Amino acid sequence: MSMSAGSRIMIVEDDEIIADLISLMLEKKGYLTTETISAGEVALLKSAEMNPDLVLMDINLNGMMDGITAARYIFSLFHIPVIFLTGLYDERLLERAKTSESYGYIMKPFTENTLISNIEIALHNNTIHKQFLEKFGIGDPKKIVVMAEAMIIADMKGRVIFFNPSACRLLDLAENNLIMKPFRNAVQLINGETREQVKDIVADVIRQKLVVSHEGTTILVTKSATQKPVSVDARPLLDDESQLIGVSILIKEMAPAERQIKRIISSGS
Fold first, then answer.
1. How crowded is residue 10: how many other Cβ atoms within 10 Å of its Cβ?
2. For strand 218-221 and strand 188-191, is the pairing parallel, antiparallel, or unpaired?
3. Is residue 85 within 8 Å of residue 13, measured between CB atoms?
4. Domain 8-132 belongs to what architecture?
5. ∠ CA 245-154-204, rounded to 5°
6. Contacts of 185 by beta carbon, 8 Å cutoff, 6+ apart
């Protein structure tokens, strides 16, 4: 039985046979495994919901986001340690992997002992590392999943890479119509008085590196053309080295009375 038995491991691997083999190795040693994921963008999206203790991440994945990019955001947002799996030795990939703050790099094929020892070391090192980090990059994953407000993360290209369940409900969008889509296209915001489209808030934050807020007169237009008064707060998202890696956006639907108060405050200022 492993010293870290009971720890929850997320497997991100697009080869079903390899994924099943890894699951067997882990379960034999007493680890718990989440459902296997085959795309980087899905791994990032599900990391808050599944909240694993560690992620085993194949570098070359199907989908729109590779394992290195997914790992960087998973660690930056939630401080979940990631170990890379790869069948290719590539110096360029290795250099990129170093910048993602991964906890290991395992070459395929590997033995059970190699896999388990790397996991044990990564979990131990992460326990020590967490003492010197902010608890979470954007907040407690468990709270983000259940919060009433819509939480959305956009990358440096303005694409939506993470969102909580409330975002889908507020926007009236299915997950596949939001993930990796340009924020400006997925989230339609207009000024309720002028009826003009609100400027691209993600681009504004990235350009200015400052918080951008809209409230009082801002309207969200959903896919079904429903109009909802909202407040929007967009902030720079930094990694542990204070490098800008994206934008976090919080969207809250406002009750009529609350909206009126916000409008009075805004007009008074």
1. 23
2. antiparallel
3. yes
4. 3-Layer(aba) Sandwich (3.40)
5. 80
6. none
The domain spans of the chain are: 8-132, 147-268
Q: Which residues pair with 246 in a beta bridge?
A: 237
Give the pLDDT of the chain (269 residues) as one tens digit per residue: 555 768 999 999 999 999 999 999 999 999 999 999 999 999 999 999 999 999 999 998 988 999 999 999 999 999 899 999 988 777 777 777 777 778 888 999 999 999 999 999 999 988 887 766 666 668 788 899 999 999 999 999 999 999 999 999 999 999 999 999 999 999 999 999 999 999 999 999 999 999 999 988 999 999 889 999 999 999 999 988 889 999 999 999 987 645 555 555 555 55
Residue type, 17: I
- What values do phi and psi take at 165, rounded to 5? -55, -30
User: Residue 23 in contact with residue 10, Cβ under 8 Å?
Assistant: no
Q: How far apart are CA 73 and CA 246, in angstroms?
A: 9
Q: Quote the CATH superfamily of domain 147-268.
A: PAS domain (3.30.450.20)
3-class SS at 155?
coil
